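Hi support team,

I'm filing this because I wasn't sure whether my run with NAP finished correctly. The job status page said complete, but I'd like someone to confirm that the output block is well-formed before I use it downstream. Pasting the exact inputs I used:
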Amino acid sequence: MKAPLFHRLALIGMGLIGSSIARAARAQGAARSIIATARSAATRRRVAELGLADQVVETNAAAAEGADLVIVAIPVGACGAVAAEIAPHLTRGTIVSDVGSVKGAILRDMSPHIPAGVHFVPAHPVAGTEKSGPDAGFAELFVERWCILTPPAGTEAAAVERLAAFWHLLGANVETMSAEHHDLVLGITSHLPHLIAYTIVGTADELSQVTRSEVLQFSAGGFRDFTRIAASDPTMWRDVFLANKQAVLEMLGRFNEDLATLTRAIRRGDGETLFKQFSRTRAIRRAIVEIGQDSAAPDFGRSHPELPHLPLPRPYAAEE
Ligand code: NAP
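And here is everything the job wrote out:
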């Protein structure tokens, strides 16, 4: 068995992402010991019950003490305060990272607190589900998903490589880019889709001509796929939109222009514009499946019930 990459991994925040890292790191022997903490006593208790870490401690400072890798896995808006809190307890040579879905704000809020001699390598595993909390995590979450590292200029290459090796061990593919570019890319691939899902599910709920029970009953028409995204954690997503304001507003501006084009095509009965657009988007779906980022199984991989074997109703049944 190979030597673990890290001596002591500290996880601050043990929700979906933190607990998945703990499970995967344990399964892969990525760290000699795993120390975990969470804000509430209830989560810390649950983490201990599930046996997700070698030690569960009460404070962020106690978690960071003596760790050579600290990963902060909490909502983006809370990361700056946690960085300030752990700063005096960090050892020279330690790598501090996070998993936040926005990187510019993380850089702005966390880096001023990182002491000299400590490496700051922000990261974003582009993997998740709509579930939250320590029970929702699983070791395979990051397999074949991308983890984007956004080290600030001047970060030691060896620290970046060591964190990349950690994520590789957890099954992820690793890409490095600037925080600014990350926020633009994720603005269109993740943040805007979430905003659209939150909007459409809210709009459907407020319609007066269509009842809520009809919306639920006929949801297989497309609506239910938005509801999965719109069920994502409200705290996390509030923080994402507050933290990635510029990029989201930029993408939203473009989206509104394109929506106006389709609106006009519908109003004018311009089938050619609609057909062209829908053909282009279908090719994008095919490409996502081809590179293994989604299942090619019909209906997004959902299983379907068996066709019931019922007798034909009387007037249509062949006479015996
Ligand atoms: P989660 O399941 O809701 O867990 C959040 C964790 O953060 C919990 O341990 C919670 O503690 C703690 N926490 C919440 N507010 C806090 C605060 N103000 N101060 C300190 N700790 C706090 O969330 P998650 O899905 O793991 O997300 C964590 C991070 O990962 C976020 O930054 C998010 O942007 C990023 N991320 C999420 C996904 C996804 O799909 N979910 C994907 C990639 C990256 P308690 O349990 O004690 O309240």
